[in-house]
Amino acid sequence: MKRTLPEKNNQFVPTNLVTIEGYIxxxxxxxxxxxxxxxxxxxxxxxxxxxxxxxxxxxxKIPSCSLHxxxxxxxxxxxxxxxxxxxxxxxxxxxxxxxKVAQKDLEFRPExxxxxxxNSLKNQVNDHFxxxxxxxxxxxxxxxVTFEENQFKRVQKMKKNVIIGDGTNALELTIWQSHFNQIIxxxxxxxxxxxxxxxxxxxxxxxxxxxxxxxxxxxxETVNEVDNNVNRCQTLRGKIMSxxxxxxQFACQGCGGLNITETPNIITCNDCHSRLFxxxxxxxxNLKITISTLNNQEYNLKIPKPLLINLLNVDKTSxxxxxxxxxxxxxxxxLLSTDVQFTYSEITGLITDIATYIQ
Length: 359
Fold this sequence. Notes:
Blueprint: H1 7-10, E1 17-27, E2 31-32, E3 39-46, E4 52-59, H2 66-77, E5 80-89, E6 92-94, E7 100-104, E8 129-139, E9 143-148, E10 154-165, E11 170-176, E12 188-199, E13 202-206, E14 212-216, E15 233-245, E16 260-262, E17 266-269, E18 275-277, E19 286-293, E20 298-304, H3 305-315, H4 329-333, E21 339-345, E22 351-356
Parallel strand pairs: 4-6, 11-13
Antiparallel strand pairs: 1-3, 1-5, 2-3, 3-4, 5-6, 5-7, 8-10, 8-12, 9-10, 10-11, 12-13, 12-14, 15-19, 15-21, 16-17, 17-18, 19-20, 21-22
InterPro entries: NA-bd_OB-fold
């Protein structure tokens, strides 16, 4: 028996099709797939928030695509672009047969292709792209790195660590085998689209498949000593709104209960009798503080107890030295509505300096 389904059930309705607007900052060549004879390519789009997304276009066995040529035209024009009918899934973008690109004038410009000084990269965002003009100060020997593609396959790739310098700083750059022949020790380069890496409050750079090295005239005065420590501190003025003690109560790992007995050296669970040596380093010896700034922005930060003691000593006539004051809520309340100037780390949220001031 033959049954004809309604026509609407035979139609494929595309889902998650989106439009993005930005600048085409890099287009990779059309490449043959690994494992079959089809092809693909990808390109980078810089968005208004200065983040960068990668878009992939999958092709057939014929390495030709009209969209690829249109993207090149958009890049050459220096204008922005509107990309329609992109499929988005989990932050990944792919083109389909209906994807189109149209040139468009946008109200921003891509920062990732503007030349930055190495020292200014300490204030940039992790995983963002950047462009620099530097001298190659040092190149290490090849270093093998093993990657696990899956549970059955491991691949070894070679990298080199390079010290690059400009007039403001020097940083470490990781390059891979495809880049080895693109740089020479002592020469200077315009390096476009390096990936910024910030880990453990230290900044470094990594070359990717999108990175290009353009030789430029020799940079004369450059820094050779690496300073990769990120120090993001900001100084503001505001009013103290609240100060709270941290909850340092231990919970039992064995049963999750809170029926705990603490001695100077041991923590004991009264329910399951688990025991743990008491390590004072487990405690956060900071307090929670909320400060409202002059432009009504609220900051929820941490402050060391010694800084609060100094603040109380300055603000009160009697000298206070005992940290037991923090067990009394009334003492902390004395600082509420106090006008202060404070410096804090944008990375840790910890106040490093605080003092009262008169408006």
